[in-house]
Amino acid sequence: MSRREMARPGGRSARVQASVHTAVRELEAELGRDALTVPLVAKRAGVTPSTIYRRWGDLRELLSDVAVERLRPDTAPKDIGDLSSDLTAWAEQFLDEMASPAGRAYTRDALLGDPDGSNAGQCSAYAAEQVAAILARAADRREDAPGVETVMDRVVAPMMYRILFRPAGLDAGYARRLVADLLGTGRKP
Question: What is the per-residue pLDDT across 135-178, written as a single tens digit (0 to 9) for each?
Fold first, then answer.
């Protein structure tokens, strides 16, 4: 059983998680990421270092958990009125946020401290939920729409690859081209 499976969703466990996450964010802002240590975070959070080690294992897994939480979208995708506009606006915003220095750092942290792949899966689920909301609205408007996995494969995956491995030259135009190609509205060769 992993540490995450043992954690209770509310009560003391939720308070500990919130205080530790807050401590990480505050200390990172004050001292920089390289200065973070488990004892320093524990002291700021008002818990013992053993609490952090027991729950997260090590600093890398803690930073991964904090990153996943920070990558969670805090708003629903914009409803502009049609699938192409909605998906394009979302893809542009996703690319802008994920390609930013903070987005890239959170993505690296989420992946580095993720021994079982659950954090990567959660980040993927966040994007898939947003895409599903856009596609559901399109279906309600009786628009033809691809499936969630098709959007993930043809829009999200290429953007994440470029963000992680080939970030030079990424801009909103890249996101627009991916969506246009997916929906068949792009220029034909």
Answer: 999 999 999 999 999 999 999 999 999 999 998 889 999 999 99
- Helix crossing, 101-112 with 83-99: angle to 10°? 80
Distance of CA 157 to the CA centre of its chain: 13
Q: Which of 57, 39, 59, 69 is nearest to 3 (CA)?
A: 57
146: how many CB neighbours lie within 10 A of its CB? 19
| Angle of the 59-71 helix axis to the 38-45 helix axis, nearest 10 | 60
Q: What is the pTM of this model?
A: 0.83
Are the beta carbons of 98 and 126 closer than 8 angstroms?
no
CA distance 174 to 159: 8
Which of helix, strand or coil describes residue 60?
Answer: helix
How many angstroms separate the CA atoms of 189 and 186, rounded? 9
Do 99 and 165 touch, CB atoms closer than 8 A?
A: no
Question: And the tokens for 107?
Answer: 């993505």
Domains and CATH numbers, the chain: 3-57 (1.10.10.60), 74-183 (1.10.357.10)
- Strand ranges inside 19-131, DSSP E: none
